[in-house]
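Input (structure):
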């Protein structure tokens, strides 16, 4: 590796830079921890977080001024993105203060965003979409359906829909595909967010249309299978109800199974908690790995949190509709079904190196199984968190990338 003009190795400089960031973060954590013992802990913690956000924004602004200040196209795009982010921030603050879903629609930032999305919906060919929807779900029968409901012909028919969101709407960039084996059972473990499982759809599309060109079977929460049409569509596209036995059967058949251990808690977490991993449930991934010896491959997905930023969840509506959560976003439920259209956030999917805990299991034969399962689960969670952290550090903007 060559050296720069100062005679230093670039990787050495990068490593030192990263260590400085780690030390800074540790220092801030200590400040937050100390603040919790203070009488005004909440106020102090908020000041520290606000200071961090201001510093981050300052660095981004400097980068923009240095590189793109003279580009008219970028200036225009930046102005639009700034307006969208400002509306998002203002509306989130209002929702946090009001704690109610009926007061929000009277506020000025929400009305601006509502008009913007209504204008966008005017360009959608609704009659054409409805006709195609009926053709796909009602007037067409599919004979190539496997035991879990997957249909290759159905997948091909709706391919343009997902192609649009993958390539143009979310502009997904994927790295680490070489870590996925060409054959055999695989367990993908990814973070989960965004109200609707777009992350499962984009991960499936990425691996299906790039080497090794394999079909992924994502495990999806049961609540989606009870929704009209959506449950059938998920099954036809390869989604499977999230339970241990389904995953075990698929892995033994040599399939790639995508697991989202955060479950419903990951989907329903508010925007202010974005990219904070929830607890991985019950050690199912570790048990699958130990029983099948299939490699565990961690995946970090960045961009899904901004696609449907959840302001808060209405406990009243969730209980009345018998749902685990009822999300209140900038657009849903205000705009009805149009409110389910995700924001055009920039997505990054990072696929890590395979993990294998067979040696660790052999070396700890005398350790209680539940303790061993817990250790493996925590280790997997740490690796997914590291992938997320590394990707977020490289990202300059939630919408521009």
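Output (sequence):
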């Amino acid at each position: 590796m060559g050296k720069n003009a100062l005679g230093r190795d670039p990787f050495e400089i990068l490593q030192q830079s990263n260590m400085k960031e780690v030390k800074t973060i540790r220092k801030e954590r200590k400040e937050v921890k100390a603040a919790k013992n203070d009488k005004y802990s909440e106020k102090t913690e908020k000041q520290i977080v606000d200071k961090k956000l201001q510093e981050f924004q300052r660095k981004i602004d400097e980068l923009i001024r240095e590189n793109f200040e003279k580009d008219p196209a970028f200036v225009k795009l930046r102005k639009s993105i700034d307006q969208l982010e400002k509306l998002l921030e203002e509306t989130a603050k209002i929702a946090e203060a009001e704690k109610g879903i009926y007061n929000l629609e009277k506020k000025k930032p929400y009305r601006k965003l509502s008009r913007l999305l209504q204008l966008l919906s005017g360009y959608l060919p609704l009659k054409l979409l409805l006709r195609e929807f009926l053709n796909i779900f009602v007037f067409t029968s599919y004979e190539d359906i496997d035991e879990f409901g997957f249909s290759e012909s159905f997948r091909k028919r709706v391919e343009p829909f997902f192609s649009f969101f993958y390539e143009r709407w979310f502009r997904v960039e994927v790295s680490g595909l070489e870590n996925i084996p060409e054959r055999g059972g695989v367990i993908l473990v990814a973070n989960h967010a965004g109200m609707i499982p777009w992350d499962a759809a984009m991960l499936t599309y990425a691996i299906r249309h790039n080497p090794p060109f394999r079909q992924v079977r994502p495990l999806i929460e049961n609540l989606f299978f009870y929704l009209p049409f959506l449950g059938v569509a998920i099954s036809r596209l390869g989604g499977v109800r999230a339970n241990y036995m389904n995953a075990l059967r698929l892995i033994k058949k040599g399939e790639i199974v995508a697991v989202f251990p955060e479950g419903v808690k990951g989907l329903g977490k508010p925007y202010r908690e974005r990219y904070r991993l929830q607890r991985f449930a019950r050690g199912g991934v570790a048990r699958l790995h130990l029983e099948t010896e299939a490699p565990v491959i961690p995946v970090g997905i960045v961009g899904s949190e901004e696609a449907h930023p959840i302001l808060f969840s209405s406990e009243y509506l969730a209980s009345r509709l018998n749902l685990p959560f009822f999300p209140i976003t900038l657009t849903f439920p205000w705009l009805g079904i149009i409110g389910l259209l995700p924001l055009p956030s920039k997505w990054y999917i990072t696929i890590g190196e395979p993990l294998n805990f067979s040696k660790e299991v052999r070396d700890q034969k005398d350790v209680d199984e539940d303790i061993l399962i817990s250790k493996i689960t925590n280790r997997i969670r740490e690796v997914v968190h590291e992938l997320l952290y590394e990707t977020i550090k490289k990202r300059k903007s939630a919408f521009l990338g």
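Notes: The two ends are 29 Å apart (CA to CA). Confidence is low (pLDDT under 50) at residues 1-11, 98-105, 117-126.
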